[in-house]
Amino acid sequence: MSSTLLAAGLLCLPLALAQSGVVKPLVQDCSPNIPGVVCINKYASVMPYHFFRNNPNVTTDITLGQTSVPNDTSWARVESADFLVFDQQKAMQILGPKPTNEFVFKISKAVHEAPVYVPAQNKLYMSEHWSQLAPPTGYLPQLVVDLNANPPTLSEYLSDPPVYAPNGGTFHKGLIYWGASGGSNSIGGMEQRVGVITLDPLTNKTNVLLNNYYGHYFNTVDDLVVDACGDVWFTDPQYSWFTGLTDTPPQLEAASYRFRPSTGEVSIVDDSILQPNGIALSPDGKYVYISDTGMIDGTLSPEYPNIHGVTLNYTSKRTIYKFDLTDNGTHITGKRPIWLSQDWVPDGLKVARNGYVLTGAGKGVDIMDDRGHMIARVQTNYTVQNFAWTGKNWTDFWIMGQGGVSKVTWNLQGPELV
Asked: Could you tell me the CATH superfamily of domain 112-340?
């Protein structure tokens, strides 16, 4: 190397060592007229060194806002914001000029799932269950939010017969469809197995549609959705055994299914996902979305069949996959990942009326377009399990999880369930 080139290289060395490309500031107001909404510039794709985000453990979730970024003071705004905006143009359209994010009810640290809005009653039903078999006195009560009251009220109720640990839910032709995730020889004096159960909210009567696969118990029935033909698509991970919601070790692999109530036939549609969790259909009926929360797993050992408990591997699956519907809408193909959860795991999963995909992920709800392009995030002070739209225009958005229930008002419409 010539002395001239060597000298030039030495002159460039300090510049090469200096950090370049840093986005400044990382966080700023999207609009001075909309408090609580902050924009993340260029997705914070280049942070100033030294930044660090720790991995969570079984009991603690490390949020995006808790990432240590000491050399950009604007990052402190992430933790306290109501909404995080990543795509400003699309986000401000769905948030509207006056979005709100209100913490409405403080509730127990139990799992709160299966939110279903009943338009005829203007009530929001949801489940409540602990990670253990129900107490000897009977079933844990479910919850209902009465939206006719001002302010809304929260109360307990039991259906007839009661449903043990609904974990996924939807509304279809006047009935609530629940994925019952708990099973035992005796819960409150009667046997119940994991399956699909309907509730008529006007009579409070329940009816079992499905409770086995050719004699085998299902594992969990975590989430479900009903298509235009009346078929029920559901996921069946193995979480109920890990968390003590069933008295029987898994008899089936973790998989996703399509169930046709008119004939009773159950068809497996996918067994490639480690722990399938949320499931949703696109508004045009062309695509199915399924989330894999295999980051949270458990012990299955034939040598120790009574072992319960969950394990956590943050480098394992926390992914949403998109599938194409095929075979006249009866099966799925073309699996591809569209979202890797940036907080915790993608738990609740639903599709808005415009095709945007929403998922509960740690302490918030992520909003993406149908290709997984991150648009915005609603933030909460509790771990989110699920959510549902309510109201005449389907723009009131209720979020629930371990410790809280929140209400968001915005312009993003939910699917009009009939």
From this structure: TolB, C-terminal domain (2.120.10.30)
